Amino acid sequence: MSLFLGASAAFAQRPDQESLVDRRPFDQITLNDREVIDVMTLKLPQRPLVSVPADGSLTVRLLDRPAEEFEVSWSNVARVRIFEELLLDEARRLAAAGKFDDAYDYFARLLAEYPSLAGLNDAVSEYLRGNALALYQANQHDRALALLLTLYQRNPNYAGLATAVETVAGKIIERYLRDGNYAAARGVLELWRNQFGKFGDAAATEWQRRFEAAATRQLDDAIRLVQEKNYIAARNAVSKATAIWPQLNEAANVVAQIEREFPFISVGVLETSPREPRHRIDCWPAIRTGRLMQRLLAEQVDFGAEGGVYRSPLGKLELAESGRELTLALDPSLATGGHDGSLTADSLARYLLATTKHDHPQYRADLANLLSGVSIAPGAVQLHFDRVYVRPEALLQMPPPVDGQRFSIADYGPEQVVFTTPQAESAAPGGMRAIVEKTLPNDDAAVTAIVSGDIDILDRVPPWQVERLRAAKGIRVESYRLPTVHVLIPNTNRPLLAKREFRRALCFGIDRHWILKSVLLGGMSQPGFEVISGPFPAGTSLSDPIRYGYSNRIAPRPYEPRLAAVLATVALAGVNNPTGRKEDAPAELPELPELTLAHPNDPVARIACQSIQVQLARAGITVKLIEFSADQLLAGAVDCDLRYAELAVWEPLADARTILGPGGLAGDVQSPFMLSALRELDNASNWNDVRARLAEVHDIAHHELLVIPLWQTVNFFAYRESLRGIGEAPVVLYQNVETWSNAAPGNVARIEPARK
């Protein structure tokens, strides 16, 4: 004992900053004088020690002097606690203090290394109950239910568990029902019934009854609406009914009758179509809807080794071998003598000549400079050119003189647009009567809508949702034939944006590669997604023919925020001191003004612009984001410093002038080099010349930054497997709309009158 007392100073433990849960195992002795010492793991009669022996001694090694042994008389020992008891006591203390994340680490180690420790299961159950209660009070109901499930699996007879599950699960179901996420609500109900045994069966059964009652009410509404011939509303009602509770026997009958009496296709969109769409390469909703409401003289349907492949809804296009004559042989069903506004060769010829006048709404400078005359032949119109132009069909992407639209808007609203055919009431049995576009609030809602069957097609699938939909049963995900180019269009009417140095600052201040790969693609890799150096598409591979307008020699500018800040300051100084003379310089340079960046209300554009906003702020350029609709864009009502645009540059030969020419998307071009290059492009007579001239245009655009190139994307759409006639990789969604149909429903009975 004298040795032990003489070494008592050695038992004074210095504070250890390491958490108990991270330490190597040790034991703890409490002496009669309440002094506590930590020692190397002891050899005890049993672990944990039930009671302290009455006599004898204990050999110990101090943690900080492990090589020395000391004898401790049992008569001086009040208590011995082994390491696992220390862990359990600390875990309980942390849980009681509400520090559940910290307590979790202790319980995890105990369960892994000391699963048979007495009292551990009860402590874990109490921890799970307390943590679930705290999460419930914090409105984190999903996490609370997950912990209650873990508690049930460990201790199904825990007191009060059934009531807790009923309360938490009920709250989650109510929240999902408020949000209209019926599939998620049913998932909670199924989890409740399948994973928690029978103790919640009565309450879960009551919830099921409520689901079935709500679905039945919706189905009754659908039956009534069918009888009133309000088929679109009926389809919405039956879709909601099956979303609430899919096991409705009569739902298939309702859908079948709608398909027989008024077949239509429901299309989910993320941007509402414009009321009056017209051909614009920078407006996706107009590109989509234009195919329905505004047929063009020449429509691009594919892309080949020598530019776009075009088809005319009016007849057959044929380019002479000389390249100086284009013939449009009219469909005989359209050339009916000119009565009642029908199309004739004469009326079309007069229209084409009129488009070469500056004051015509469809005036195109490139066509006017190329066209030398128009002649007519029986049932055909011939366009004569004063020089060879490799793809003159591209210049005819304009509406015909007679309204050739197939669809018209029957109902227009911010949430739903209904397009009907002129023959909707007299269409043959089984013929499609309408297209119903539903504007969905976000991409998650869009995915839910197509999976649940609320829509038949989803017009755009953001890249981060592609794999999720590919895994969904009954859904096909395809890509459009041609990629699109994303750019920022500066408003050069603003003095600062008119400065090339400032446009370069914007380009250097955006980490385009990071936004594309990490934000839009979520770290995944997709062919066709790449950062670009100019306004033309790079294609999905080096051999992709649409790449003919892209110069391989020009690499995208790197991300250099410091250089961006310097260039922005230089540009601002130039605006405030146009003469450049020192005596004209302001005493103090003002701060950079806040820029407005406008973008369409599309999820890809929105998240990209949010990332651009953050990155430009690092270069000292503050940006305010505003959203615009397709109607606002087409009406010229978007007032901003920068506009985010997604360009369908599917024929660079023709679209170069649309983007960079006078009056084009880039505004009034003040670059004589660009104007000269565009004139040279107009005079290109073969594809080798076209490629060389476009490379020059790309080079000038890269230096002038009339538009700021961002990246190229491949675009996806999704549709239910029951839909037929979509075609393989269409250029636009409605390219083959005349052939669309839903697969015939199974052998189902006709709906009887509504139940009383």
Radius of gyration: 36 Å
CATH top level assignment of the largest domain: Alpha Beta
Give the low-confidence spans.
1-15, 336-340, 744-756
The shape, in one word, is: globular
Structural class designation:
alpha+beta
Q: Per CATH, what is the topology of the largest domain?
A: Dipeptide-binding Protein, domain 3
When the domains are counted, the total is 6
The CATH superfamily of the largest domain turns out to be: Dipeptide-binding Protein, Domain 3
Give keywords.
24 helices; 756 residues; disordered N terminus; 6-stranded mixed β-sheet; 6 domains; Serine Threonine Protein Phosphatase 5, Tetratricopeptide repeat; alpha+beta
Folded structure, characterized:
With about 750 residues, the chain is an alpha+beta fold. It has six domains: about 70 residues, no CATH class; about 90 residues, Serine Threonine Protein Phosphatase 5, Tetratricopeptide repeat, CATH 1.25.40.10; about 55 residues; about 110 residues, D-Maltodextrin-Binding Protein, domain 2 (3-Layer(aba) Sandwich), CATH 3.40.190.10; about 100 residues, Dipeptide-binding Protein, domain 1, CATH 3.90.76; about 230 residues, Dipeptide-binding Protein, Domain 3 (Dipeptide-binding Protein, domain 3, Roll), CATH 3.10.105.10. The protein contains 24 helices and 26 strands. The strands form seven sheets. It has a seven-stranded mixed β-sheet with strand order 13-14-15-6-16-24-17. A six-stranded mixed β-sheet has the order 19-23-18-22-20-21. A hairpin with a 2-residue loop joins strand 11 and strand 12. Helix 4 packs antiparallel against helix 5, helix 8 runs parallel beside helix 10 and helix 23 packs antiparallel against helix 24. The longest helix is centred in the first third of the chain and has 27 residues. The radius of gyration is 36 Å and the shape is globular. The N terminus and C terminus are likely disordered.
